[in-house]
Task: structure prediction
Amino acid sequence: MARGHRRRIPVFSYIIRRLISAVILLLIVSAVTFGIFFLLPKLAGQTTDQLAQQYIGKAPTPADIAAVKKNLGLDKPVYEQYWDFLKGIFVGVDYKFGPEAARCNVPCFGYSFKTHIEVWPEIQSRLPVTMSLAFGAAVVWLVSGISTGVISALRPGSIFDRLSMGVALAGVSLPMFFTGALALALFTYQWPIFERSDYIPLFENPFLWARTLVLPWVTLAFLYSALYARLTRAGMMETLGEDYIRTARAKGLHERKVVVRHGLRAALTPIITVFGMDLGLLLGGALITEQVFSLQGVGAFAVQAITDNDLPKVLGVTLLAAFFIVLCNLVVDVLYAAVDPRVRLS
Amino acid sequence: MTDSSENQTEPAAKAGKAAKAGKADKAAKAEKAVKAEKAAKGSEAAQPAAAGAAGPPTAFLEVRDLKVHFPTDDGIVKSVDGLTFSLEKGKTLGVVGESGSGKSVTSLAVMGLHRASRQQRSKVRMSGEIWLDGKELVGADPDEVRRLRGREMAMIFQDPLSALHPFYTVGQQIVEAYRVHHDVDKKTARKRAVEMLDRVGIPQPDKRVDDHPHQFSGGMRQRAMIAMALVNNPELLIADEPTTALDVTVQAQILDLIRDLQKEFGSAVIIITHDLGVVAELADDLLVMYGGRCIERGPAAEVFSAPQHPYTWGLLGSMPRIDRDQTDRLIPVKGSPPSLINVPSGCAFNPRCPYADVPKDDVTRTVRPELRQVAGGHFSACHMTQEERERIWTEEIAPRL
Ligand SMILES: Nc1ncnc2c1ncn2[C@@H]1O[C@H](COP(=O)(O)OP(=O)(O)OP(=O)(O)O)[C@@H](O)[C@H]1O
Ligand code: SF4
Ligand SMILES: [Mg+2]
Result:
């Protein structure tokens, strides 16, 4: 009995510990991000008056400005503003400036005074696009990247190996602008296999959903496949030289099982780590891909916000990206523990 | 026990295979030239005729003129270069020799582990014959050898921590080894794994079966390794330095275990080690390797009591003894192991041999000594005459040991 406990408890306590540290990490990341966005205008030499002015129409009176400053707490110290921001996430915020008033609902991740929209609903409406793009591409690159890497590792120096590693090198070094534009030129304009169209929700029409996304998936996955193929190949080459691989062969196992069950299983751990990072980043918006294929996702939103110098929007997107990265890392840590039993106990 | 690399004709198929690569062709030619030269010198080999060297042997395991070469960027590494020995069921063969003498490469060759994957096959050149229970393995289909692996022959590796997969439980790994060769369900296999763990002396085997290797101590891991190797009742067990990674008391336990298990199952055992103490206890026969070749072999008792090769004297001299201070090693072998790419001409041991000038005409540096019979099954490869060797042994070496 005692042994059963010894095995199970570490897993739970490990997950709890990871969960707590993820929350702490999220707080730190959001504080730092908030701090930077607080500092940025100051570094650019803007006064709070000028800041306040941005929130109002064309010709504000000094009284208007003072009212806005008071209402938005622009004169408050940074930690108080951060606290207000956090509070806003859970209770929402009411803004009053000049003649106008606005309500930013729970969860309030900021309010764009320039465009008079709440940041969160806007992001929310764009998330399905970005998620479809990220998850779809991830499936494509995991399958193609890992299988290419494994086959290459099994036959280093072979034609397949050299060819695929050559393509991989191209994939890593060619910019998305180029590959994306090329894909569009070939498969949308030259041979209109994948017509250009707006995003179509998955539950509306799965077929059309996939069809609009195939090109972005493949273009994005091309870059990542290349990285993952190289990563997998290197990892496999290393693990296939391990002593336990020799042991597996000494049992009389079929080589295929040796490679997959013993080799790949061990080579996957570093890949999982990198994958967590990559997916987290992508969920925060695939800036270039969304641009190239005119997808209205979070990335396009971010680009627009930056161009407009709309700080509340930029802050919202940045925090979202941070949230996804922390979340993906948490998932990675848990996966890691599932894969490598040594992790749970240390 | 037969040996005569000169007389042996490699099976045509294998020669053809070796000749495929241009380099191999050259090497083969050079080899032939050397052989011819030696044949011309007149083989003074006073050993039994090579028993035709063609048909299947009578011994359970017979290795004939085994060569394992690895072509590398620096040249061809001749890790094993003409090795011949045989082993009967129920007997233990001890293989000794310093680091790099080709002990592991030999055992992996017997297991077919130089040719398990496509990649490995492209990196090794093997010739000679390995007969296991009437089947020849060097020329056999790798998949056929794979099916023998783990069932007819099994291996215990040196470092049990790195040799066990860190992500699978000990039980899973033993179960896997069993199910490769037995069509049984997981439950049955697990019962068998627990039984084996119990047999090798792991306490609470039904609980420990679910532990991962890192939860075991070094000695327990080696026991688990042994359980895994024995799970299919192999007839040949190869233990490659099974105790080097362990502390002294555990070493003794593991050796006892191997001995007990051998008695129980009557399998043939090859035990590889640099520790002569280990073989002194376990081995019936002894094979001393130097630079990829056998330089002395014979019944362990004889090799220990009347060794017939200067290198063996050196090994015995450097053997730590319980009744002496560990640091008080008598006649260590001076110098470093030979390069396996440019093996010294003549006797590979000549740069380090204190007696290299005893045989006349510098023959030691020009002609490679072949194994010659000393008495019964005792062979040694040294140019000195038997009288010279016996005199040096009894007058100079033995008194100092
Ligand atoms: N795959 C390989 N490619 C090239 N050289 C190899 C290969 N495997 C072994 N060798 C070389 O063959 C030689 C003999 O190695 P081997 O492992 O058999 O030595 P050993 O007698 O077992 O030594 P140790 O006591 O250190 O284990 C070494 O010099 C080694 O570098
Ligand atoms: S042949 Fe010569 S060098 Fe070799 S062991 Fe004998 S005496 Fe020494
Ligand atoms: Mg070795």
Q: What stands out?
A: Residues 22-41 of chain B form the longest helix (20 residues). Residues B 70, 72, 77, 79, 97, 99-105, 274, 340 surround adenosine-5'-triphosphate (ligand 1) (CB under 6 Å). Chain B touches chain A at residues 108, 111, 113, 116-119, 146-151, 154-155, 157, 159, 162-167, 169, 173, 176-177, 180-181, 207, 210, 212, 214, 228-229 (CB under 8 Å). The radius of gyration of chain B is 22 Å.
